[in-house]
Amino acid sequence: MRNQVVMVYPYQGFSGTYVKHAPLGLLYATSEVVKSGYEVKIFDTRVISGDWRPRLQKLISEDTLCVGISVMSGSPINHAISIGQFVKSLDADIPVVWGGPHATFYPEIIVRDEWSADYVISGYASNSFNNLVDCIARRKPPDTVNGVAWRDGKEIRTNPDRQKTFEQIDYWDIPYHLIEDYSPYGQLDQNKRIFSMYSALGCPYQCTFCSSPAQYRPID
């Protein structure tokens, strides 16, 4: 039985050349998957010197249940497409799941336009991704999984994202151990290592270039 979930972080374009933070979004998204007993592997293409394909190919095996990709809008989209299509070239039966900010805002468009994306998850994903992984493992359609879009034959189906509050993930449940080496993360012009953390979710500001103000909750 396939039991391995591979999570991939694409190149981030120019913004990812100056400062590299650990891909905390992948850790948060897999917190429940790890607790459910699946084997999770993190693959960050930003810290790979040279071609990333041979390294990713070594992670993909007959035990791989699915591959998840966290996608920001902008230049990371093309790289996410390359990753998904490369996975399909290795094994067309491995489902590819898109998540992250771009997936949250354009789930149906991604499923419609990108053939290698089998599922797209909107919003906060730790619970919904875990439920989707369970459905994939049991070969059942994700009819009840929150915020998932997928192809059902020629039809695009979408479950609405009904989670309107921020996820609360206990610090001890965040699987920091999935990143084996934190040394590549830091700032380009400083010989200093960086360990990233989020102390809060959301943002009180209204910057026109940012999607964060689109999600908020009242002050308690």
From TrEMBL:
Pfam families listed in its UniProt record: B12-binding
Query: Which keywords appear in this protein's UniProt record, sorted alphabetically?
Result: Iron, Iron-sulfur, Metal-binding, S-adenosyl-L-methionine
Query: Start and end of every B12-binding domain?
Result: 4-143
Q: Name one GO molecular function term.
A: metal ion binding
What the entry lists under InterPro entries is as follows: BchE-like, Cobalamin-bd, Cobalamin-bd_sf, rSAM
Q: Which cofactor does it need?
A: [4Fe-4S] cluster
Put simply, this protein is called: B12-binding domain-containing protein
User: What organism does this protein naturally occur in?
Assistant: marine metagenome
**Organism classification, top ranks?**
unclassified sequences, metagenomes, ecological metagenomes
